[in-house]
Structures are given as C-alpha cells and as structure tokens.
Amino acid sequence: MEKILVIGATGTTGNKVINELQNHQNYEPIAMVRKPEQQSQFEQQGVKTILGDLTEDVTHVTEGIDKVIFAAGSKGKALDAVDRKGAMKIVDASKRHKVQKFVMLSSIGADQPQQSDQLQEYLQAKNDADEYLGNSGLDFTIVRPGTLSDDTPTGKITISKSLENKKGSIPRGDVAKVLVHSLKDAVANREVFEILNGEQHIEEAVMTVPSVN
C-alpha cells in the first residue's frame, strides 16, 4: 500500500480526503496535524498521524511517504506563512525524500490573480505555490476547483485545463475524490486542470486531462 500524506487533514476538504483514502485498498492515509490533541480524532478512525506545523520546520513529515496531497489553507489568516511558504516547504521536503507524486489543491483564478478584486492576495499565494511545485522536478497534479460547497457530492464534474466559464461551485466531497484519483501515476501527470460541478463521472474525467483543451 502507498503511504499518502495529507496536509490540511483537519480542514473540511482534507477530512473528506482522509475518508476517501480510507475507502481505497491501495492507499494508507497519514494525517498531518499541528497539535497533539488533534491526533486522537484520526487515531480513533485507525488513521496514523504525524505532527507538523507549516509555519515551522516540516522537513521530517515526508520521510517514508510515497505521495502527498496538499489541501491546507489558512482561510486568509496566514496566506504567506501557510498557503505560500508552507506549501513550498512541503514541496522541498517531498524532493528531499523522493516523494513519487504531489497533488496540489489550488483554485480557479490562481493563474491570473490580478483579475480578482477580492481574492487577489489569496490567488497570488496559490499561484506562487503552484509555480514552485511546477518547477520542482517532482511529478505533480495541480487541481483548481471553483467555489467549494458543502452540497451533497454528485460524483460528476466538468473538467478542462482552462474552463471557459469559471463561475460556479463544486461539492468538497467531489474535490476530495478528484484529489485522490489524481494520485495515480497515469492521471494528469505534470498537468494543471480546472473543475466545476458537471456531468462527467470523475473516474472518466480525470483520465481525459492530457487531451482536454
């Protein structure tokens, strides 16, 4: 089984990623948490944890890890320390320990942060982290969803390297499914794609990424 480190495991989307991984026979999730008291919630589910704080040294967290899903976010409270530099630290640690693939949860609009009125700083932090990963030499997939919702997952999405209509939402549960499917070596390797709620089954959709416009 491949050991999958989930950064941001205590967040709403990250928690759904953990659940997806637990239901997958090929993956063993490992949740990175900041505080010792957060470990018990995962360990009660049979999920291993590792202590790590994105604002501190996290070199150790990727040791023995096969692949990484980065789903952390500071909700605007620490964009530089967490969303930008924190992501970069995990990329560096992944390189050091020869992680096989890095799946990054980004955001629609991260490629053009200057076009956003309210989210410019957030999208710029995501852009910087995405570029750093893209230039790292690691195998990666960068997933850019629209607005995350708590709606019931449909298992279906719209996907493209650049969606014409970027306004829309997508359930967090579907984003979690896409992130886990993107762990596969053959799925969107060294690719960036955008997703919204749609009509194509996730399993089929992510396999088409190299050919979508």
TrEMBL record:
<protein>
    <submittedName>
        <fullName>SDR family oxidoreductase</fullName>
    </submittedName>
</protein>
<feature type="domain" description="NAD(P)-binding">
    <location>
        <begin position="8"/>
        <end position="185"/>
    </location>
</feature>
<dbReference type="InterPro" id="IPR036291">
    <property type="entry name" value="NAD(P)-bd_dom_sf"/>
</dbReference>
<dbReference type="Pfam" id="PF13460">
    <property type="entry name" value="NAD_binding_10"/>
</dbReference>
<dbReference type="InterPro" id="IPR016040">
    <property type="entry name" value="NAD(P)-bd_dom"/>
</dbReference>
